[in-house]
Amino acid sequence: MDDAGAAFAGLVDLAPAAAFIRDCQGRYLWANHAYAHLYGAVPDELVGKYIEDFDAPAEAVQFRALDQEILTRGTPVRHTLDYRRPDGSAGRAVGHRFPVRENERTCVAGIYVDVTDQLRAMVQWQEAEDNLQALRDHSGLPCALLSANGRVVEASAAAAELFRIGLPDLVGRRAHTLLAPDPGLDRLHRRWNGLIARRTRRLETSAVLVDAQGRQRRAQLHLTTVGHSATRARHVWAVVTHLSLAHEAHPSLTAAQIRILSLLAAGSSNGDIASSLKLSRQTVDYHLSRLRDLLGAATRPALVARAYVLGILAPRAWPPRSATAAHPLSTA
């Protein structure tokens, strides 16, 4: 082996890329361990043998044609090869073949990287993207992909409909502009920061959404991080479920007023509410009168109904509790 061939062999002998040198007759002069492994052999078992000793006839014809192309052109050529892997499965490799001088003869050297697994991963990734796009576009769920700084990257048609704006206008918006002022926003912001910092992968929370007409809906938000970084999430998928009816903004209620509404929804009398909260009967009566004015409800049943319609009390929860409570058993 001359100096150029020896240098090539020394460079790639233990490299993970498969490499070989063959003469113009298709006989192996040298192969590294990675190349020999493709045939379930060691390098010494290839040297002196011919292409046909290891490859099927059709593949041997293809490989000889590639070798002849290099010998004829005298310049390197990049190739993509389909071949049969040791386990019998179809494989694909990319690499270069180029002429080298061996004992004053022009021979063919090649170095290839198996990209079968990478291509398979790309296909699986594309299938996952297609499935996600189909879910986004056809599930009917309002959902959006948000960047780490809270900007809408993409969104479903249902999300645009929810906020009563065109889809092109929704994409690019800052998510905080879609949220109504709410006592739970500070907590939501802290939990968002935890998502981005990878302290958690997903969370479910409640928020009040506001559309382009200023009407509000309380909803459940399901947030899931996207991306493989161990330190910081690049994107977050947000899916909206369990929407309340759209309504005009209502006055903020105190914790005591919300607690009274939850006890009222559970069927408690004024006296029971007073005992539970350690308030006087007159104070409870005052709060209920004030709540009827604030929520526009003349009767106790109407007051409970309005509390659910406006998203003040959580649907699907018993005993009744605030929609912003952190825990299913919380009544705060």
SSE map:
Layout: H1 3-12, E1 18-22, E2 28-31, H2 33-38, H3 43-46, H4 57-73, E3 77-84, E4 90-102, E5 105-114, H5 116-138, E6 143-147, E7 152-155, H6 157-162, H7 167-170, H8 185-196, E8 202-210, E9 216-226, E10 235-241, H9 255-265, H10 270-277, H11 281-295, H12 300-309
Antiparallel strand pairs: 1-2, 1-5, 3-4, 4-5, 6-7, 6-10, 8-9, 9-10
Helix pairs in contact: 9-12, 10-11
Task: Report what the structure shows.
This protein is α+β, with helices and mostly antiparallel strands and 332 residues long. It folds into 3 domains: 3-114, Beta-Lactamase, CATH 3.30.450; 119-241, PAS domain (Beta-Lactamase, 2-Layer Sandwich), CATH 3.30.450.20; 253-332, Winged helix-like DNA-binding domain superfamily/Winged helix DNA-binding domain (Arc Repressor Mutant, subunit A). Helix content is 38%, strand content 23%. It contains 12 helices and 10 strands. The protein has helices spanning 3-12, 33-38, 43-46, 57-73, 116-138, 157-162, 167-170, 185-196, 255-265, 270-277, 281-295, 300-309, and strands at residues 18-22, 28-31, 77-84, 90-102, 105-114, 143-147, 152-155, 202-210, 216-226, 235-241. The strands form 2 sheets. A 5-stranded antiparallel β-sheet has the order 2-1-5-4-3, with helices on both faces. A hairpin with an 8-residue loop joins strand 9 and strand 10. Helix 9 crosses helix 12 (300-309) and helix 10 packs across helix 11 (281-295). Mean pLDDT is 85; it is low at 326-332.
